[in-house]
Amino acid sequence: MLDLKDVRVSYDNVPALRGVSLTVESGEIVALIGANGAGKSTTLRAIQGMVKIKNGEITWQGQRLTGAPPHQVVRHGIAHCPEGRQVFPDMTIAENLNMGGMVLGDAKRRQELTDYVYQRFPRLAERPRQMAGSLSGGEQQMLAIGRALMADPKLLMLDEPSMGLAPILVESIFEMIRTINQEGISILLVEQNAYMALEHSTRAYVIESGKIGASGLSSDLLNDEYVREAYLGI
User: pTM (2 decimals)?
Assistant: First the structure.
């Protein structure tokens, strides 16, 4: 479905990705874990066309995606929920969702997706006219995910969805991620909470200094001695 081969990205000639290769197959939840600055967010930004790729190839459903601008990537069926939520604070919940659905020309489909998002996140449905900036952190995360879902994606990329949330909300967000996946959307999950990421994913990659250091079934990585010591604190 999604295939990265030897992807390299630099910022001001400083390497950020040093040959990242990974795949996401249909129906999977794939986690990308690693320390701060390891290249997790840069990997998502490279897929989304938000940073220039120096070398390597990105293909999506057999089509070359390398170098495509962000709006074309969204139209291909890949949506990105960024780190820090980045909702539009001076717009309402409904307006934020409408922004997410702007790539769709079908008004009927936009309404169906709006209904779907409100069904998945009832707290948003209760107050569609509330300003996004006045929402709690958890509600803003729900809105950010909902906004991404409005693009009708086949692949949803989530960047640190648990950041800054209380433990009870983290559990809720991860359960929602699993539900979204079960309803037919593949997930590429960047998450610093390595334990939660591995618990809720099919496969995982460990990125270290811009390179993939380990990969495999998430259940296997949960029991890997190095991963447990370096990322799980066990």
Answer: 0.93
Q: How many CB atoms are closer than 10 A to CB 146? A: 25
* Percent composition of the chain: helix, strand, coil (DSSP 3-state, to 5): 40, 25, 35
The amino acid present at 118, given as its one-letter code, is Y
In whole angstroms, what is the distance from residue 38 CA to residue 86 CA?
21
Q: Rounded to the nearest 5 degrees, what angle is found at the Cα of 177, between the Cα atoms of 173 and 162?
A: 40
Count Cβ atoms below 10 Å from residue 70 Cβ, excluding itself. Answer: 14
| 188-227 pLDDT tens trace | 999 989 999 999 999 999 999 999 999 999 999 999 999 9
Comparing CA positions, the residue from 161, 105, 96 lying closest to residue 127 is: 96
- Domains of the chain (ranges; CATH) run 1-21+35-69 (3.40.50.300), 77-192 (3.40.50.300)
